[in-house]
Amino acid sequence: MDNLEQKKYPIGKFEQPKKITDQDIDRHIKMLKDFPSTLKNLVGNWSDAQLDTQYREGGWTVRQLVNHLSDSHMNSFIRFKLALTEDNPTIKPYDEAQWAELQDSFNMDIKPALQILKGLHKRWVFELRSLTNREFESTFHHPEQGRNISLRESLAFYAWHCDHHLAHIENLKKENNW
Asked: Which of 126, 152, 110 is nearest to 33 (CA)?
């Protein structure tokens, strides 16, 4: 893996596990539970200059990344609820790169995004802990990927998503001795 690829995917690209066990689900839920406080502890006291630093050349700033996490996880939570209340609903994809260029992602303080993540993850984890194995098999259809995705699979992806972006920020912090 070259340096740019390492900076893009510091923990590697997401690889869908062949099997996701109950223990995996518990571990993924714990990641979602801990993520908001981990992120806040990591960047909550950063200066504007630090928040406006790209985590890699050609990449987003940390400010955009934090706002992306809020946007992405809100979309995921809604997808979970749709899958639990409808029969394999087709979800609405969104252009995350364009969302990251909107003013609220580009210029706004990160505190509202951190607050959204805190409340959202509290609700998400509460719901996840109540699901049965059968409910985790509920699916939604992703039109861009052209396939159905189970909630079990989506949970594994979002646990990876948390680790993936935390690694971006942690690597930037280490590189800059912050």
From this structure: 126
Spatial separation of the C-alpha atoms in residues 71 and 117, rounded to whole Å: 9
pLDDT average, residue stretch 157-175: 97
In the Cβ-directed half-sphere of 145, how many Cα atoms lie within 13 Å?
Answer: 12
CA torsion sign for 24, 169, 63, 39 is positive
Taking domain 21-175, whether its CATH number is 1.20.120.450 is answered by yes
Domain ranges of the chain: 21-175
- Give me 113's structure tokens: 């995004």
Model pTM?
A: 0.95
C-alpha distances out from residue 132 to 13, 22, 32, 124, 129, Å? 28, 10, 18, 15, 8
